[in-house]
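Title: Prediction job returns without error message
Component: structure pipeline
Severity: low
Priority: P3
Assignee: unassigned

Description:
Job completed but the reporter wants confirmation the result is attached to the right record. Sequence as submitted:
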Amino acid sequence: MCYNSNMKNYSSKKGFTLAEVLIVLGIVGIVSALTIPTLVTNYQKKQTVVQLKKVYADLNNAVRFSEVDNGPMSTWEFPQVGSYSFEIIEPFIRKYYLPYFKSAKLMQQSELSDYVILPAASNPSRNSGIITNFMLLNNGVIFSFFANVPANYIWCLADINGVQKPNKVGRDIFVFDVYKNIDPAKKGNPFRVKFCGYSAEDEYTLINGSSRYACNKENTDSYKNFLCGKLIEVSGWTIPENYPW
């Protein structure tokens, strides 16, 4: 009888014990718990920047087309009564903005259920937040226009994912200034639409400045994070560290 020295005694081979399997699964679970949230957050930040850039471009392109029909923005008929009233600002939006966004429509607060663009603290006279003027685009983006001074600029708030949460300034809501005035620093070049905080060009000022609009986690003002869009722009279209995400 020949003996094959290469034969193995498979019956003596042992598999993983239950304890070993559980240890491996535990390690995998810990690693996943540590890495997956970071990956998700990084993805959300990148998507936010992509959407914000598109909204910024679309808004400025609409203004350029509007200027072809209505003349330079410096000649536009800005509302001359300071108010959050839909009736006062609505004609301005309807003439200068609405026709230049395909299939866009104007909406009032009552048509958007409990959607609130800013917290009530921004306007204590209204318990549900600022009752403002909404323009809903066909891609779901919501623009909100309001002015609390008679004059030459209007705030435009862009909710880049519409009624979806979190509906927070600096996360999915970003603030633009729509100016009638001429920019004195640019020798007569008219503004079209700029991020709120156009004069604050460095990250330190935008994050750590004393402005009530500063983009930082410690800011508790009702207008906090209005400068976040500008911060993303001057940071090379990235969301920097210490951003109030």
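Comment from assignee: result matches the submitted record. Strands lie at 105-107, 133-136, 142-146, 153-159, 173-179, 193-195.
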